[in-house]
Design brief:
Chain A has one domain: Orthogonal Bundle (ABC transporter involved in vitamin B12 uptake, BtuC), CATH 1.10.3470. Chain A has about 300 residues and is mainly α. Chain A is globular. Chain B has about 375 residues and is mainly α. In chain B, about 70% of the residues lie in helices and about 0% in strands. Chain B is built from 17 helices and no strands. Classes of the chains: A mainly alpha (about 300), B mainly alpha (about 375). At the A-B interface, helix 4, helix 10 and helix 13 of A face helix 8, helix 14 and helix 16 of B.
């Protein structure tokens, strides 16, 4: 049971961070379908820090890993920013390309450094046993991960940013009616860049959190198994509002955690359902939830539409 | 709109400018630019990893089967690339068909998986012959497409997200179902000959003789070309195709003009899914590949289809060439010097090409502006 709670909380943290990223980006008017790719890149940054700097004091190492993940995520999200803000590219296409590119490029990169270190090593894996330990505080068998705290802080900050802050309110105006925002002197380009970069940082953190969830060895060929898209579903279910997104993330986290821990429940094990069914569970629940939640969508009005000054 | 403008202007500019103004030429040029830029970036990545063998490796990626010395071997490898190009063409047709209605069917990957599941299970468990297996794969793909369409129309679910979810659901379902017909000692499904059902293999029609007896070159090749032509005709010459494009351009205007937009959306995604499902059967029923029942990620075929569709300028005939190119460099990835590099470098190249395809609109715009400017200059001189 403790294990189920632990996994639920950690997967919920992943979904929460990434969904908040998607939420801010969409409020500024850019659909960020590249979240999945940004997660992979962020995970790479964090994993590299954990592998190379595990001799540092734990607090410093944790902060460094978080910074690396957020920074690389922001950097990678620039690909989306440049294409969709300045070149009016199709945001769906660019996002998809980013997802494919991230997995391929990270695999090539990790394989290259592994092979450079040891000519016989052609794997795309990074190991970070020591680094992972620094993220975890063991309380009577319950593994508290610092990321759970980071996620809670992120919700509060995003809430304050969006609703109690001039910048956030202006950013949301650009997602609702950019022409109107522009007419009162708000720079749409600047606001959209802010949205994209913040979403990049949050998704990068989410990616690092994801690879810390259960393992201390990550194979970069695998990517993050659709978590970026699950996070988008969490965002839609949460109606683009930080508080509701947190609740949605907990529900989805629970279903994802079940596939890791169902063996520990005698009554679930007795049902003898194949493990593939549990693997499918989060995606099925997501579809059903979306079917009900999407009807009355509170999506930002101008999301996905390139800003055109001449349009009224 | 472009054409209307052209007729008004006096035809004094050079032939080159006139040719450059043809939309098809612009599309081809833009695609070539994307390809060149993609290869260049791939080369730079290789240079960064290890400058020593970078040039040779990128050339091997481009050469693919030509890296073999004997012409007989080259032909055989060419056949293999061709066999894998067929499902890719089908996937890119699937993507571009739905994109004409303004839908981004990323679920193609899952519909492809469903097709593989249906055709393999029918062949191995029920002993069906090749044609029914193919049709069953078609139905399975169409069904999955219909779910995406129904969710879009009736529940307003974004087709990209529902598509991704269905991809994973399809993958795990397929793994579960095909485990029943897998070999005992390996995670792979059985060969058709193991269940005495060689009839499930697609007939060769003598095409294998052309490729040094490569039995993977089958009826799928001509069939796929016929389908590509059929899609072109449907899109450009029929009322249904016109309605689809109208719905894609402006949904509300199409509705106002009395077109059944909801029916069109579902039907489009069904056809799109059917194409992907059929594509899978065209690969797995050649015997070239078997399904691995412990697969933990969705096969890349559907996603590469996106690259091929956009690189081909969203034109069915263009998709044939771009699919071959994408498969060509994907296969070429195995000829890089694996002492330094990994074969995924070709995935990097193709994903960069997709990314750059997002800029095609901008490239065309710049081309038109440059032509207009040079023309103005010439006229000013006169």
């Amino acid at each position: 049971m403790l294990l189920l709670i632990q996994y639920t909380l950690i997967f919920a943290s992943v979904l929460l961070l990434v969904a908040l990223g998607g939420c801010i980006s969409e409020h500024s008017g850019i659909i960020n379908l590249g979240l999945e790719g940004i997660m992979v890149v962020g995970a790479l940054g964090g994993a590299l820090v954990m592998r190379n700097f595990y001799t540092l004091p734990p607090a410093l190492m944790v902060i460094l890993a978080l910074l690396a993940a957020a920074l690389l995520g922001m950097l990678y999200s620039c690909l989306l920013g440049v294409a969709s803000i300045h070149f009016k590219a199709d945001q769906t296409l660019v996002g998809t390309a980013m997802n494919l590119l991230a997995t391929a490029a990270c695999t090539v990169f990790v394989k290259a450094i592994n092979t450079a270190a040891n000519p016989d090593d052609h794997s795309s894996e990074i190991e970070y046993v020591a680094g992972r330990k620094m993220f975890i505080v063991n309380i009577n068998g319950f593994e508290f991960n610092w990321f759970m705290l980071v996620a809670i802080i992120a919700v509060v900050l995003v809430y304050i940013f969006l609703y109690k802050n001039k910048l956030g309110l202006r950013l949301m105006a650009c997602g609702e009616h950019p022409q109107a925002a522009d007419s009162v002197g708000i720079s749409v380009v600047k606001m959209r860049w802010t949205g994209v970069l913040i979403s990049g940082a949050l998704a990068g953190l989410g990616g690092l959190c994801y690879i810390l969830a259960g393992v201390s060895l990550w194979k970069f060929e695998n990517g993050v198994a659709g978590f970026g898209f699950l996070a988008l579903a969490v965002m839609i279910f949460g109606q683009w509002k930080p508080g509701r997104i947190a609740v949605a993330a907990l529900i989805f986290g629970l279903f994802r955690a079940l596939s890791n821990t169902y063996v520990g429940f005698p009554f679930l094990k007795a049902l003898n359902i194949p493990s593939n069914v549990y693997n499918m569970m989060p995606y099925i629940v997501c579809l059903i939830v979306l079917a009900f939640a999407s009807k009355n969508s509170a999506a930002p009005k101008a999301e996905g539409i390139p800003y055109d000054k001449g349009q009224r | 709109m472009q054409a209307a403008k052209d007729t008004k202007r006096p035809r004094r500019t050079g032939i080159i400018a006139a040719i450059l103004r043809i939309p098809a030429v612009q599309t081809i040029l833009a695609s070539l630019m994307c390809v060149l830029a993609g290869l260049l970036i791939g080369y730079i990545v290789l240079l960064f990893i290890n400058p020593q063998g970078a040039g040779e490796s990128i050339i091997n990626v481009i050469k693919n089967f030509f890296t073999w010395k004997r012409p007989q071997q080259q032909l055989k490898q060419f056949g293999n690339t061709l066999a894998k190009t067929i499902p890719l063409i089908m996937c890119s047709l699937s993507i571009l068909f739905s994109y004409k209605v303004g839908l981004f069917n990323i679920g193609t990957a899952g519909q492809y998986v469903a097709g593989a599941c249906a055709s393999l299970y029918a062949a191995l468990a029920w002993g069906w012959s090749w044609l029914p297996c193919m049709l069953f794969a078609l139905v399975a793909g169409a069904l999955l497409g219909a779910i995406v369409g129904a969710l879009k129309v009736y529940c307003n679910v974004n087709e990209v997200i529902s598509g991704i979810m269905l991809n994973w659901i399809a993958l795990y379902t397929t793994n579960t179902i095909l485990t029943e017909v897998k070999e005992k000692a390996s995670p792979y499904t059985m060969y058709f000959k193991d269940v005495n059902n060689k009839g499930a293999l697609l007939p060769n029609l003598g095409l294998d003789k052309l490729f040094n007896n490569n039995s993977y070159v089958t009826i799928a090749v001509p069939l796929c070309l016929i389908i590509a032509i059929a899609i072109t005709i449907i899109l450009s010459k029929t009322r249904f195709g016109y309605e689809l494009k109208a719905t894609g351009n402006n949904k509300n205007a199409a509705k106002y003009a009395g077109m059944a937009e909801n029916r069109n959306i579902i039907l489009t995604l069904m056809i799109s899914g059917a194409l992907a499902g059929l594509g899978a059967s065209m690969l797995y029923q050649t015997g070239y590949m078997r399904w691995e029942c412990t697969m933990s990620s969705v096969p890349a075929m559907g996603f590469n289809g996106i690259a091929a569709a956009f690189l081909g300028g969203l034109n069915p005939i263009g998709a044939i060439f771009s699919s071959f190119f994408i498969q060509h460099i994907t296969d070429g990835g195995q000829y890089v010097n694996t002492n330094f590099y990994s074969s995924q470098i070709s995935d990097v190249i193709s994903s960069i090409i997709i990314y750059l395809c997002g800029f095609v609109l901008f490239i065309k715009l710049t081309m038109n502006r440059a032509i207009a400017r040079s023309k103005e200059k010439k006229e000013a001189k006169k």
